[in-house]
Specification:
Structural class: alpha+beta
Shape: globular
Strand content: 5-15%
Number of strands: 8
Radius of gyration: 21 Å
Order of helices and strands: HHHEEHEHHHHHHHHEHEHHHHHEHEEHHH
Distance between the termini: 41 Å
Length: 459
């Protein structure tokens, strides 16, 4: 192994030598679940007008190509396809995530892995290798900077995701350590700024961060294959003080998190899945509200007020309300909207984010009855637990309370294979169940798929 201070090199060497045959069974299984969840989110996102506008834009720019635009029934050039496939996986805000890094690796890594494998006609084992490698390269730098990277104005899904996408594509291309290192180095030059300002402001361009990261990483790997070189210390930087982690965080990163346990502890095992189409910081409140609705058969017309108590970062990131004509991005990052939708609809899925649903004045008025504040006890539990408590005051003077310490989908209360299958079928809507069942069967048995095109032709 290289000197541990050269963190980028250590990661590149690990990715170049990663082998399916040496991966633990639970890692292989989790990679398959991540891909299954990824497909579910693509289907769900196609309900959104903004997503279809992105697809229409790229369709108008198409000059042909052989890479599948998943769920959309056409092919285009590789960079455009991975941009769309990352965007559709991201937009619904039900994508997988890594709590310790505040990022969502799958929306960047998986599109690049699938597109590169489709190009080469490779199969499940190679894709699993690529996904596992990509998640390590996306997650470990994010964890080393969390939460200061975000608090410095960046979204790690876009920034760190590009590194992961580059590593995934490079793994499919079977690059040696030198080429893998250049792919990761190139990604540092091409990656998006992925400004947190856009997410916090509710701007719909936010939805492309996965696509932009996937496309940048794909390009970085391709250019490495053509001989272009990038910094071999792109993460940690050198005496030139221009490294990624030197310029994108206001607090010194914990560099050891990049390499500690590498090859022994796989970050993909700590990835969570989302049962709801909203920021993970809303999920404790969403789950509590849904449980109370189910248990007490609450009619939303009887609600006097709702108080949500949570941890500090959640109040800061998702504590604000929404107004009529706000974007669906604002709704995804609003506990008041999320809780109101759960109380009124008994669900939080793709249909709760459509323009039609968000224009309902009764829903907006219900959200205005919901307040969010930090509870110091819950705040002290963070980040070990992302806990929220919901207190519903009814007009008959009853007060209903529920606290969720670990929202569903966390590895400590996981969404299992059956949960993700149900999610995929729900988000697939009225699509023909025959192909959907075949997609599910093939992804669950991904290691036995010899050519990824057997799946992409079905999606």
């Amino acid at each position: 192994m290289t000197d541990s201070k050269n963190y980028t090199h250590v990661l590149a060497e690990f990715c170049a030598n990663l082998s399916f045959d040496k991966l633990p069974k639970e890692v292989i299984h989790k990679a398959g679940l991540c891909i299954l969840d990824y497909i579910a989110n693509i289907y769900g996102s196609l309900e959104l007008k903004a997503v279809n506008d992105v697809i229409d834009y790229f369709r108008s720019q198409s000059t042909g190509g052989s890479t599948t635009v998943l769920g959309c029934g056409f092919k285009t050039n590789q960079l455009h396809a991975v941009f769309i496939n990352g965007t559709t996986a991201e937009a619904i805000e039900a994508q997988d995530g890594y709590r310790f890094g505040g990022n969502h690796p799958g929306v960047a890594v998986i599109p690049a892995a699938i597109a590169a494998a489709e190009e080469r006609g490779l199969g499940g084992k190679e894709i699993i290798e690529a996904v596992v490698a990509g998640y390590e390269v996306a997650n470990r730098p994010a964890a080393a900077m969390h939460p200061w990277h975000t608090l410095s104005g960046f979204l790690p899904t876009g920034t760190c995701g590009a590194f992961g996408a580059a590593a995934a594509a490079a793994r499919i291309y079977k690059y040696n350590t030198s080429k893998m290192l250049n792919a990761i180095g190139n990604a540092g030059y091409l990656l998006p700024l992925s400004m947190a300002e856009h997410l916090m402001g509710g701007f719909s361009i936010k939805i492309v961060q996965g696509g932009q990261a996937a496309s940048a990483g794909m390009m970085a790997a391709g250019l490495s294959g053509k001989g272009l070189t990038g910094s071999d210390q792109v993460l940690e930087g050198s005496i030139l003080n221009g490294g990624f982690m030197q310029i994108t965080t206001k607090v010194a990163p914990k560099m050891e998190k990049i390499t500690d346990g590498l090859g022994e502890k796989y970050s993909i095992l700590d990835v969570y899945f989302k049962p709801y189409t909203a920021c993970r910081h809303t999920h404790g409140a969403a789950q509590a509200a849904l449980e109370l609705v189910k248990e007490h058969d609450i009619s939303w017309q009887l609600i006097e007020k709702v108080r949500v108590f949570t941890y500090g970062i959640a109040e800061l990131a998702v504590g604000k309300g929404i107004r009529k004509n706000d974007s669906f991005v604002s709704a995804q990052f609003s506990i008041p909207y999320v809780v109101a939708a759960c109380l009124m609809d008994g669900d939080l899925g793709p249909l709760q984010l459509t323009e039609k649903r968000m224009s309902d004045e009764a829903l907006i008025k219900l959200s205005e009855k919901i307040t969010v504040s930090t509870d110091e006890t819950l705040n002290k539990m963070y980040p070990e637990k992302t806990a929220s408590r919901v207190e519903i005051s009814l007009k008959d003077n009853r007060v209903l309370t529920r606290q969720v310490d670990i929202p569903k989908g966390d590895p400590r209360d996981p969404m299992e294979e059956g949960d993700i299958i149900r999610k995929l079928k729900q988000y697939a809507g009225d699509r023909d169940i025959g192909p959907i069942d075949r997609i599910i069967e093939k992804i669950i048995n991904l290691e036995n798929v010899s050519d990824i095109r057997d799946i992409t032709n079905l999606v």
